[in-house]
Structures are given as structure tokens and as C-alpha cells.
Amino acid sequence: MSWVYWAIITAVLYGLFDFFVKKTAGKVEDGLAAFIYNVVSIIIVAAYLLFAKYKGLKFFATSEGLTYNIIGGIIIGLASLTYIKVFSSGANLTTGVAIVRIGMVILATLLGLFLLQEKLILKQIIGIFIALFGLFLVLVK
Question: How many domains does the chain have?
Fold first, then answer.
């Protein structure tokens, strides 16, 4: 299956997640909400792993991969807390999501360019500048 298919499904799931984070904000203490999100996600992933093992998937991990995985886990835990804080501190869903997601795209693109030596074509560079301009429009009242 094409990565684009998975990207579309992921975008839909994260959009729904954003909505439910906003609905949770202020109704469940931020740390407890992050804990619940992450525990529930562990249950979902554990069910997937059990199903995959049943279907014969062979699991593997390199030490480098595990190191990056652990660092990513630490970051997603911190991001869960700060993301909930965005909305419990009063951000609207439309503004909070835009700032976080556009910021994520810009940071990930810069990391890809400078740390992974990925290349951009002119059309992608223009898209990044449009995203930066969009972020500016969202931030400035």
C-alpha cells in the first residue's frame, strides 16, 4: 500500500485526536489526560502486536533503532503534556492546531534538510514559505 494512503489515514486520526484533546481540556487534569491518552494508545498498539504475532510477523530491532525509539517516546510523552496545555490554557481548536501542526511541518522539514540531508525541489521550498506565511497569519491578530 502506498505511503500516501497511510498519510491520509494518519491525518484523519490526528484531526480526530485534536478534536478530542480540545474537548478534554479543562475537564481532566492535564497530566492525567496525557496519561490516559498514552495508556489507551499502549493498549491499542499491544493489541496490534498480538495480532501481528499471531499472523506470523517477525519482530526486529537494532540498538540504534531502539535508541531513537526511546528518545521518540520521551518526546511524545512531553508533547502530550504540552499539547493538552495548549487547549487547557485557552487556545481555540482552529488556532492551536494550526500553530502546532504548521510548526511541526517546518521543524521536521528543517531536520530532514540539515540532519538527514534530504533534498527539496523548488515547489516544496515555496510550500514551506507558504506555511511560514500561514503561521504568521494565524499568530498575528
Answer: 2
